[in-house]
Amino acid sequence: MTPNDPLAELLSRGLTPEAITAEIASDAEVIKTPCGDGDLVWRRWGKGRPIVLVHGGSGSWTHWIKQIPAFKRDYEVWAVDMPGLGDSDMPPVPQIPATSGTMLALGLKSLIPREARAHVVAFSFGAHVSTHALLHLQDHVADFTLTGAAALGLPQGPGKEMPREMEGMSDAERMEVHRGLLEVLMFKEPSRIDPLAVYLQSENIRRARFRSRPFARIPEIAQHLPEVQIPVKAVWGAEDQTAWPSIEARYDVIRQGHPELITRTVPDAGHWVMYEQPDAYNKALREVLAG
After folding, report:
1. Could you report the per-residue pLDDT of 225-269, keeping only the tens digit for each?
2. Which domains does the chain have, with CATH numbers?
């Protein structure tokens, strides 16, 4: 993090992960739109051109905790909790990515006018849901940036055993499980897994009701993204463990429907690239949005 970044300042003060998360959230406006029998929860920071941040599977708005302080300086930042994740209620039946995407699209349309030309940036499973949303939005938004997306019809890599919480574990043991999950799936360099990352992972898993993992093998992004008639961009971590067989293969699938694709690959970063290498990710994202 750069020295003048608010999150770096909070980390330097030795605050607990809970306090850091609360501080980042403290100046957000919380807005709700319909979702199934309940609400889709949005948070808004800053002023300027809207940028909509859509988190990954078993996550929440906190997947973007290192982008919000940087981008709210010159954007109106919207971070949504997807249906069945974070603070949002489950989508209507059938509870699949398409219905989650419909809820996302209806909410975005009601909150952000077409003439504002919002950017949509989506991580991992969020890119799957956002692709469905954009079928309803089309030119209501300016462009679509994917990061770490699956559902592209490519083979899965070799499976790795995932650590799991077991009944009777202590709090320390449970935190080690979540650190292990981050090491296997989310980070390139385990030494970068700090207490804040472990806390966010544990809280997001605890609140997750929508199980996104089974949908990663369904090639719905590859099928539907060509129908999305706005410019598409991509920013990936160079060492993304989920990008099998390669990141270039993923770019190639996206280019089949979007030859205009602009890409940036962030060196020395895994799947959760925007947390592991925030300065490099933020720079890359600003470049593709400007492009």
Report:
1. 999 999 999 999 999 999 989 999 999 999 999 999 999 999 999
2. 6-160+211-290 (3.40.50.1820)
CA 191, CA 90: separation in Å to the nearest integer? 35
Query: For 198-223, what is each residue's pLDDT tens digit?
Result: 999 999 999 999 999 899 989 999 99
* pLDDT at residue number 282: 98
Q: For 47-57, how does the pLDDT look when each residue is reduced to its tens digit (9 = 90+)?
A: 999 999 999 99
- CA 226 distance to own-chain centroid: 21
CA dihedral (31, 33, 38, 42) positive or negative: negative
Distances (CA, A) of 227 to 156, 256, 265, 291: 25, 11, 25, 21
Can you give the chain as a three-state secondary structure string? CCCCCHHHHHHHCCCCHHHHHHHHHCCCEEEEEEECCEEEEEEEECCCEEEEEECCCCCCHHHHCCCHHHHCCCEEEEEEECCCCCCCCCCCCCCCHHHHHHHHHHHHHHHCCHHHCEEEEEECHHHHHHHHHHHHHHHHEEEEEEECCCCCCCCCCCCCCCCCCCCCCCHHHHHHHHHHHHHHHHCCCHHHCCHHHHHHHHHHHHHCCCCCHHHHHCCHHHHHHHHCCCCEEEEEECCCCCCCCCHHHHHHHHHHHCCCCEEEEECCCCCCHHHHCHHHHHHHHHHHHHC
The answer to whether 83 and 36 are in contact (CB under 8 A) is yes
pTM for the model: 0.96
Question: Sorting pLDDT into bands at 50, 70 and 90, what band is 183?
Answer: very high
